[in-house]
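Q: I'm writing up a methods section and want to include an example of the input and output format. Could you take the sequence below and give the corresponding predicted structure tokens, formatted cleanly so I can copy it straight into the document?
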Amino acid sequence: MFKKMYLLLFNRVTDALDALAAGNTARAGEILVRAQQACEELYIEGTEE
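A: Here is the clean output for your methods example:
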């Protein structure tokens, strides 16, 4: 579970950094919020097992 969460978060942070480099701060924020939500969902699913 944690490996999957880490990989998801790492890749989304990279995407957010790319968006920031392109000057798109709103998109970077959206990417980070969605990544946070996805990791929270994975964590919840993993604790229910």
